[in-house]
Write a structure and sequence with these properties.
Elements: E1 3-9, E2 13-18, E3 23-28, E4 31-34, E5 39-42, H1 46-63, E6 70-73, E7 78-82, E8 85-86, E9 89-94, H2 99-105, E10 117-122, E11 131-132, H3 134-139, H4 145-168, E12 171-182, E13 188-191, E14 199-203, H5 213-216, H6 222-236
Antiparallel strand pairs: 1-2, 2-3, 3-7, 4-5, 6-7, 8-12, 9-10, 9-12, 10-11, 12-13, 12-14
Helix pairs in contact: 1-6
Amino acid sequence: MKQLEKLYEGKAKQVVATEDPTRIIIHYKDDATAFNNIKKATIYNKGILSNAISTLIFRHLEAQGIPTHYLDTLNERDQLCRKVQIFPIEVVVRNIIAGSMARHLGMAEGFEPKNTIYDICYKNDDLGDPLMNDHQAVALELATYEELAEIYDLAGRINEVLKELFLKIGIKLVDFKVEFGKTEDGRIVLADELSPDTCRLWDIETGEKLDHDRFRRDLGGVREAYEEILRRLEGCMK
């Protein structure tokens, strides 16, 4: 697949056009960022690991009937994906209280509510990706109520599939962030990536954090944590 001009560059990935207007290439970088791009670093081979992990998860979700933008993995850093119109909304699915929610509500990390919590954020770096509600999203014409209902339904289905998958490899799926897009024919599909960059993953036995929090909180061993997640997933999916 011939690569053309770069369409977009984010914190951890680049999006590149191809000769097929319905296809893009997503290139995974080694950059790590936190706190709205205030903290930055380069972590050797993080892009390779995130691409490999995201590939396994996307393929698993597709096998479970979850529609995604993923088509193929071209090499150790590049994925071929459907070109979609991204909703400027990030959906955060929370199974366990951690991170910003714990801070904002004055709660201890690790509390497991009886319900699954869904947050949405306005995907806008200049504003710091603020939390918003459905009515605000509709008012800003980021999505319709009907589209939001479908997005929440997909996020819930993804959550159930991923909780079961990670449980098999001894991991608690604490929370995760997902983005959605609309295909040329109007279908809503999962986009972006699913990796330790976008998921909080705790070892069930030890509680060890095996995700991007190792970078956010200066815990060290970021690459090693990603390698451990990849090793367990590969062992589970053989």
